[in-house]
User: Fold these one by one.
Assistant:
Number 1:
Amino acid sequence: MIPFNKPFLIGSELKYIEDAVLSGKISGNGIFTQKCQAFFEKEYGFKKALLTTSCTDALEMCAILANIKEGDEVIVPSYTFVSTAIAFIRQGAKVIFADSYEDNPNIDANKIEALITSKTKAIVPVHYAGIACDMDKIMQLAEKYNLVVIEDAAQAIDSFYKGKPLGSIGHMAAFSFHETKNIIAGEGGMLAINDSKYCERAEIIWEKGTNRSRFFRGEVDKYGWVDTGSSFLPSEIIAAFLWAQIENLQKIQTKRKELWEYYYEKLNSLKDELNIQLPALPEYATNNGHIFFIVFSNIEDRTNAIKRLKNNGVLAVFHYISLHSSPYYNDKYSGAPLPNTDKFTDCLLRLPMFYELSFSQIDTIVESLKVK
């Protein structure tokens, strides 16, 4: 069986975990946490990077930092993971779902302004498959209406918009290091801050609402409870694992992008025969090799393709169920139809993508897609 995903181990993860354990500090915000955060700040220009136990936690920190409260509205795409919405719903906000582009699962930036009201406080673009949203348009709207932009960059490590790293453009951003991502820590995430006014409070929220980090730096003589927050920071064991991956980021990225390009080359010549759409890469975006997806014309064709692949020992999976039509939100949704979102829910299929995938395995996958 060719799995959909296989976590890739560099080889130094266990050594660094041992180093973390032997250091005598494994509770978090130690040497490996600081090394990881310093790397992201230097490499991608974030004003502050804070590791978290998940991307969900990072999004929840964003919601707190943006002072989202009951009665506020937050615009999010419907084609995304539940964490993108629930982080703001837990603060009491109403999520306003936006449609995707016709040829791209990302939020359609041209449809956002019509959703903005006097209650709107934030826009949360999701860079699906590591492919950038139209950030110029989104940031212009944010400036015009005084809104906070929170990039859900869960899938977008080392991907760019007009040369700018994704996650560095909005006021803040959330990343994931889940085992399905390009670089991993099992579970793990990161909050990236780009507006300096959020930096100090972010650190307090990260440390359970205390100014503990300032105390450890010697900036105050004692620490206490000064704000809301939670236990968002991960252990040094998670950070040590992640550091091994970070050290090999470009090696991982090079291979994943080669695999992505090979998929594209093989399927591009067959797209008419298979009646599929391939990923649309806007001219302003780069590809980070996170997901290779294809889009069928209807759910029946996708279902049949999944069966053909499975019969040939290949596990391929669909992705998000439209949040506006989910069991939790269906009876709460009163907005307009979102036809493009529903199309991707019914028709998008993710093909196996992981570091150790071989070109010959991709040949098998492509051959298995053909209707015999």
Number 2:
Amino acid sequence: MTNPTAGQIMRDHIERGLGMPRELYMTAELFEQELEAIFNRSWLFAAHESQLARPGQYVTVESGLESVIVSRTLEGEIAAVHNVCRHRGARLLDAGCGSARRLVCPYHQWAYKLDGTMLGASKMPPDFDKDRYPLRKAKVAIWQGLVFVNLDEEATPLADLLALGEDAIAPFDLPGATVAHEITYDVRANWKLVWENAQECYHCNVNHPELLRAFDVAALGDDLRRSDDMRVQCTRLGLKPGAVSLTVDGQPASSRPMLSGEPYTVALHLKPTFAVVCCPDYAVVLRDRPVAIDRTEVTMTWLVRADAEAGRDYDLDNLIKVWDQTNLQDWALCERTQLGVRSRFFEPGPLSGEEPSVAAFHQAYATMLSGEM
């Protein structure tokens, strides 16, 4: 199956108002094409700036076969380099985060500065020119305190993509936040099932009791903005009377507000890799990474104001409860759907009027898959 063929199949289903067909969830060749055409050309959330606050701190970002090291250099800049030694290709660092003053290949000890500049290579001939072998750089950008990387050298600037959400997100002062907690979930479902689930609340009334104590499903979609290619979406989230935050009781989880002025809650999606939901007292960031055709890694990061202290200004269990419970409920639904779409008897039905953002995701998917980004 080629990219245009898959895109045409999806566009046909869009025109007919149908869900995604079985073969788009099940084809191994298509999955590899998605990694290359979509994820390796998209902006990938790496970290909040507070996770790279000190020189030497780093995180790795994984995408398919690729790995990127994002760090705060000893000179204080944010740098992104491919996690591949210029000698014989060994990974320099294992996946995860840590701190290092330089990058040294564990195989033959070729050494590099954090910005990729080669420092030296032992036992090479006298005419070896280390300036010819720096680590390959990846594009890196910071938006509202959030650090992203992109493997595509020709990628649209991140600020241009997210401009339609700038005025809605900026008042929450995400650059002035810090990470309170982070969870990575292993979801046994195709990444598209995970994103489709995140795009609708048709399922919410029955499946998300904790979320619906504060969240007003009837108000979903108010003040909706979408980019022309459907990849970026910004939505105000309505709360029920008396609720001011998405928590179990609708009251602030943290006594240190991130937002000054009239309170509101907003969600911004950059399909299909990133979403942020901002409440007056905290924010959550989601990052999706396809691992296999039927497995997706989803990381959620909870942010609070930098001067908020756990146990004094917020209770961590209360802070994470609504989203952690909602996530677990969603992953169970995605995994149940994964089991169903494997059946040769699965045939997608029509989307409901409660699923316009699912249709928008399908349009964005067809566009990205066809290389029309």
Number 3:
Amino acid sequence: MLEDLTAAASSPTAWPAAYPQGYAVVDVETTGLARDDRIISAAVYRLDARGEVEDHWYTVVNPERDPGPVWIHGLTSEMLEGAPLFQDVAAEFAARLEGRVLVAHNAVFDWQMIAREYARARSEAPVRQRLCTIALSKELRLPLPNHKLESLAAHFGVVQRRAHHALDDARVLAEAFRPSLWAAAAGGVRLPLHECRPLTEWSDRPRTGQQAGYGGRQPASWRPSRKRPACPYPNPGRYEPGKRLKQGMRVAFSGDTSVERDLLEDRATEAGLHVASSLSRLTSLLVTNDPDSGTSKTVKARQYGTPVVDEAAFGQLLADVEPASET
């Protein structure tokens, strides 16, 4: 079967013209999962339009703080002490990403970590689109037991040598992405591409109660936490599919979004919507790109019959929000 897909994909007439011209398969290891965490190693495999490897690159990075879960990534403070800072490798990293679609497993995480590092360096990552291999495996309906990288690798017979080492994880993902791309091309499947917006807001103000990190420096905070102002409009009820959103509607978000969640919530607030942190019977609309994810919000949405739209549809709705009724 794989041979058939390979043969079909190698024919110019079988390759979708709308597919990207190149990919940067990326993996980053980090000090943790929070917004204040830092990249400690990064790897990039550059692939051409049909998934053939062009070259690869790897670097460790001094995070200027404790390296976090050493038992996972294996990088100690001593190993990272003489490593370059992110700003020292930012230009070469950018050259590897330039003009390509960023490909990663759970791509929103890798993208946001990379974007934050560039924001700290007062720069922007040259990435405009990303592709998540989890989303692609769902589009292809691969019979995977779960969405771990090791399961995707096993499905395509790719041997992993050093799990959670950025270079080996990127290699494994590149080898698993190639047949996935061929299968998508042979089947005329639309690639699940998401927009990447560079992060430009930055504050060096640490979070309340945080202690000095690696090297005695305070970790920076991405966006200062703040309480959103109360929505001035009454809740007009549920969103009705095919109609406009109306100011005052309660909107909840769940799961991965291509736009940074805070920025998306800011747009909703500015449009006069009430951003809800949880979902109840009063929620007007749930925004999620994965309605079958099984999160508490998607489960409650099904239970309450709450309307659900994806991020792209919500973006279109935001462009024309109906004013609140005058009282």
